[in-house]
Amino acid sequence: MSDYGLRIRDASGNVIFDSIDGVARVFSTQSVAKNSSGSYTNASLQTAKPFWVFYPSSSVPPDIGSWSYPVISSSGSKISWSAGTVGCQLVIGAYAIASSPAATISGDYGLIVKNA
Amino acid sequence: MLIDNTHSNLFFASKQSISLNEGSSTTITVTASMPVIAYRGTGMIAIGAMTSTGTNTWSVKIYGSGQVQTVGTIYIFDAAGNGHKLDSANYGLRLRDASGNVIFDSRMKVANIVGDGNIASDAQTTSTLSKNNLAVIVCSGFYYFNNLED
Known about the structure:
Number of helices of chain A: 1
Number of strands of chain A: 8
Oligomer: heterodimer
Strand order of the largest sheet of chain B: 1-6-3-10
Strand content of chain A: 35-45%
Radius of gyration of chain A: 19 Å
Number of helices of chain B: 0
Structural class of chain B: mainly beta
Largest sheet of chain B: 4 strands, antiparallel
Shape of chain A: elongated
Helix content of chain A: under 10%
Number of strands of chain B: 10
Distance between the termini of chain A: 13 Å
């Protein structure tokens, strides 16, 4: 058991948050227009194991024909995408774990919990 | 960094049961700013389309597996706030940003990451998860949703 960090229990004594666990954090959400491309860069993505989820904006016909689909790739701290002919909704996140370096802090309020 | 005012943590927002016959689909309505969808149940699902139908409201088309029944639960994760119901209990930790938006509330269930894996191209894999009550984040299916197989 670690002697640092933050652990919160509910009224029954169950642990409902522990800073040693990895949590899913959202870095960017956006709508991507069809036939467009773009990228997103955040230094924390390189160290906090990025993930992304995308959802097509239009349903898929049984016969795809000339439709093309979003393609997403990552390299280092940069995630790039090409939306294809349907467009998509895009969520870019990262696993924030106790060993991850600090993310950028823009305000002087709130709560900062760091590991050892 | 686990909690700060810059990035949103994902919290459990709601869930819905689904039951799909082989190769069929359904459309559900989801309340969230930008939902992250997870699934737990039999078979597999793919997201066919997700379109905004209003402020914090989405229409999501879900395809089930091609050759087995798809019966399970859709879990919706979202940032805190956004109209999601907050527990009225008077204990725990709640943080707000400079605009007064709730960015963390210990009484909402945070999306914890318990594992990940690599899948080779044109392959499928099975992972044994060590905890109960887990759901898997669902990405869009790419191709021929109606032919998804187990």
